[in-house]
Amino acid sequence: MAKIGYARVSSIDQNLDRQLELLSECDNIFSDKASGKDTKRAGFQEMMAFIRKGDIVVVTELKRLGRNNKELTETMNLIQLKKATLEVLNLPALTGINDDNLRRLLNNLIIELYKYQAEEERRYIRETQQQGIVLAKAKGKYKGGKPKYRESDPRLQLAFKLFLDGSTDKEVEEQTGINRRTFRRYRFKYGVTDDRRKQIHSDNALSINKKSIT
Prior knowledge:
Elements: E1 3-9, H1 17-22, E2 28-33, H2 42-50, E3 56-59, H3 69-81, E4 85-88, H4 100-138, H5 154-164, H6 169-176, H7 180-189, H8 194-213
Parallel strand pairs: 1-2, 1-3, 3-4
């Protein structure tokens, strides 16, 4: 039996250090910097190929395995098919129970309760938001979300230029003060993507080559 750690963050510029520290006592650790929308993640697939019957998959929080009830259930089923069990560090520990079947049963029960609670909390938040919008509209006070930056905003334009010149979202945040998640949202909104940056660099390189030839 081995303890197999799994860590995940949603994007490449986020930090895994805290999770890796909490998982440091595991025998092996796999990780991903990718969305939890499905299981097609390199680190997760490597872990699933590695684990054996009786192993324990350890995560710091259940959300590292998926974003909602459906995704979590599918992921947990894959782990169970490998005859492995799941341990979630921020849920009650079952280390004192030696019977594998009992530990697995109690562990699954705790996780199902946690999933239900998390799903209910999300549903309540959605309903409360919708009710607030309906009331605001009825009073003529709802105008929708106001954009933080206009496309012509000088700071946003500087951020776009830094990105297109090769800076990462994190570096743009450090130089402009625009939160990297907010900046990423505006990048996609206005088409300032990695593909556009590569195209610009490619065009620049082509222009330089033409000048050197002439």
